[in-house]
Amino acid sequence: MNYLNYKKRFLEREPIVPSIEPSYPVTSPASIYYPKVHLSMNVTTLTRNLKTEIITVTTSPSKILEPPHPTCYYIVNPSVLLGLTTSFVLFDGTTDVAGNTQSDPLWVGDYLNVHVHITVTDISGTWEFIQQSRDPYTGEWADVQVLGSIDSTGAYYFYIGDRGICTDFALAWNPTAAGTITFSATVTLKEEISGTPYGIGRAVFLGDKTVTPDTGIPILEGQSLKIFPEPDIEIWAIAYTTTNIQVFWL
Question: pTM surpassing 0.85?
Answer without folding.
Answer: no
